[in-house]
Amino acid sequence: MSETPEFTEETLEAARVLCAGPCDFLLGAAGLVQLPMADRPEIAFAGRSNVGKSSLINALLNRKNLARASAAPGRTRELNYFDLGEGKMWLVDLPGFGYAKVSRTQAETWMKLTRQYLRGRVNLRRVFLLVDSRRGLMDTDIDIMDMLDASAVNYQIVLTKADKIKKTEAEATRDKVQAALKKHPAAHPVIRMTSAEKGWGLPELRAEIYGLTV
Q1: How many CB atoms lie within 10 A of CB 109?
Q2: Does a structural domain hold residue 3?
Q3: What is the residue range of 153's domain?
Q4: HEC profile of the chain
Q5: Number of domains forming the structure of the chain
Q6: Residue 48 is assigned to a structural domain of this protein
Q7: Residue 28 included in any domain
Q8: What percent of the chain is predicted at pLDDT more than 70?
Q9: Which of 20, 36, 91, 93 could form a disulfide with 80 if both were Cys (CB 3.0 to 4.6 A apart)?
């Protein structure tokens, strides 16, 4: 397993300031023609519809309703753009995938939009792919990883809801995912384990994001 890189106190503080600062919703893009100019670094968050993506984004940015969670997973249906740090970075909340209660046509439309976005966004620095610590990698996660590999888009696995299981179980999930990454050339080697509710791993994930702005 790759060692987690150490961040300096200065980096952790700069990351905290960035994520505690302005972050404004810009637009929800239903097609590539609506995307804003690729004039700054861009990151995206992807994951299954019930993985806790909205909760993690809100926790990272110290907000309650920036990325609105819903009792019905699958709410995100567009490429939701946020201006982080008054022009420092675009943050994109991608449509959730793998939710069974949407029609096949709707799911295919979302996936097509995501695929087109990944292949065509030249300023995209990294995709943070969220995976539920309780379940590990599922077939739909592997499909997204294969798509990211084919698009040559750097991505990093973020395990969510680590507080919902025992530490040994979370670590076992991490080790299995780490082993799977050997087959995926575009994957970042460091896995981040997080809990939006407890705040676990958030300073380090903020530092990862900050590092992509400089």
Answers
A1: 15
A2: no
A3: 9-211
A4: CCCCCCCCHHHHHHHHHHHHCCEEEEEEECCHHHCCCCCCCEEEEEEECCCCHHHHHHHHCCCCCCCCCCCCCCCCCCEEEEEECCCCEEEEECCCECCCCCCHHHHHHHHHHHHHHHHHCCCEEEEEEEEECCCCCCHHHHHHHHHHHHCCCCEEEEEECHHHCCHHHHHHHHHHHHHHHCCCCCECCCCEECECCCCECHHHHHHHHHHCCC
A5: 1
A6: yes
A7: yes
A8: 89
A9: 93
119: which 2 tokens?
A: 């292949």
Domain-located, residue 1 = no
Write out pLDDT tens, residues 49-91.
889 999 999 999 998 878 654 444 444 578 999 999 999 999 9
* pLDDT tens-place string over residues 5-39: 589 999 999 999 999 999 999 999 988 999 999 99
